[in-house]
């Protein structure tokens, strides 16, 4: 029935660490590498196989490390290269692999290449970046940066603009220049030689730009949308195949491309099973299910997506990548609000049960699952009561543009949007225990701790056999034990239901049936009527025949 090529990263569960918010070891209020090393036993207990580490390279932190000024050094706030080596070695000794974030669509404007590049038009590094002459005395086109404002920054020194798809301190590298590719591939090889186990590639779908640099369609009445001309550009697959030939194929790596704007057709190329590009990609469609209809402006909204819209997207990816490419599975990461708040129900009565339901729904699908720090505790969105409490450059810039400069949105609505979908929701400190600052730091945390840490924390979760943590632990163990969860073919069930997300997984004679009630009310479900099944996991101890209780999830294996 199924002859998928088996390999370790298809069978693995990944845990993402956002180092700034994970564990501080020296009281400066910022998480660091020794902090991570000290928490490895916790991750071992959870049972994950791989850590994806958000960037730890040298950086002036305009975008918390996604603006790199030296790819071969460690951010001062996080420690030293010796701390890194120690973390890597300890993790390996414990059987945990480490995947690095690879941010090569852009560098920091403080990277030596850019410092040189901006000096003069004939500097040898000039063509490492994308420079354009003004158009009628203004920006070369109407593109809006992902962090608000124009995507072009004028540079006095040479009278030209450089492109920055993100902040103006993140100039885009010019991948057309073979020297840039050589530098990037050398740097990747250097890390591979150090013994790391893979790369998560930041906005890798954006490295090839449309060489015509045309205006984009109107976005918010202020700027144009660059995405049709920067995502999945004309040479992106050529570049990745070159990267694969020159670096990736020489090591045994997990690779996952963050692929903004990726379609299924494109993903079939990026993550082709022939292994010529990447292992898998992160797609965004299930994160964007609201944007089209319900946003206040841009990505900003106060609404929740419906289960059926999320299901339509995920089912489509499950079915259409079958036999062609490998899926990644995620609800949460450092750029998204907390899953239990966004897709589940974070009220006191339903937080735990709905977090477990979401976990079941995702972890029984086909693909490699990713857990974002704190998701295994059912950590929730926080409440920012003023923009002064926010730290994320995306939130701060959007607030300035939409509230202060253009009065498109009121301060109150914008703050509610930030509390709903802002990235800082994921970046509040990891909640370790109920002591001051949730045990994250003995100093003053760089971003405020979610006040619910007294009840929602790792210590409490470890003591409670029914915690969200224990449930994730079980899901991970099941995936390790049962090939049907990894390799079974996916088939949707009950697709007309507005309340229940159900599907089955098929491998040889085995049939795994999964059903999840996404509502807070009792719902009919007759999928488990057949006798002889073995329940693998559920978030309820007893079941009502023919029904699913509020947020009930069940996975039953029929052989
Ligand atoms: C990716 C990262 C995000 C960052 C952006 C620019 O989307 O996940 O955190 O701000 O790229 O590097
Ligand atoms: Ca620290």
Overview of this protein structure:
With 559 residues, the chain is α/β, with parallel strands linked by helices. The chain has three domains: 9-107 and 179-475, Glycosidases (TIM Barrel); 112-163, Oligo-1,6-glucosidase, Domain 2 (Oligo-1,6-glucosidase, domain 2), CATH 3.90.400.10; 488-558, Immunoglobulin-like (Sandwich). 29% of the residues lie in helices and 15% in strands. Helix 13 packs parallel to helix 18 (468-481). The chain starts with 7 loop residues before the first helix and ends with a strand. The relative contact order is 0.10. The model has no long low-confidence stretch (mean pLDDT 96). Alpha-D-glucopyranose is lined by residues 63, 66, 103, 166, 202-203, 258, 334-335. The site of alpha-D-glucopyranose (GLC) has 9 residues, from loops.
Q: How does the SSE layout of this entry go?
A:
Elements: H1 8-11, E1 14-17, H2 33-38, H3 40-46, E2 50-53, E3 57-58, E4 70-74, H4 81-93, E5 97-102, H5 112-117, E6 131-132, E7 152-155, E8 160-163, H6 178-194, E9 198-201, H7 227-230, H8 236-246, E10 254-258, H9 264-270, E11 280-282, H10 291-294, H11 307-321, E12 328-329, H12 339-342, H13 351-363, E13 368-372, H14 393-405, H15 411-421, H16 424-427, H17 458-463, H18 468-481, H19 483-487, E14 489-493, E15 500-507, E16 510-517, E17 523-524, E18 534-538, E19 547-548, E20 553-558
Parallel strand pairs: 1-2, 1-13, 2-5, 5-9, 9-10, 10-11, 12-13
Antiparallel strand pairs: 3-4, 6-8, 7-8, 14-15, 15-16, 16-20, 17-19, 18-20
Helix pairs in contact: 13-18, 14-15
The chain binds alpha-D-glucopyranose and calcium ion (CA).
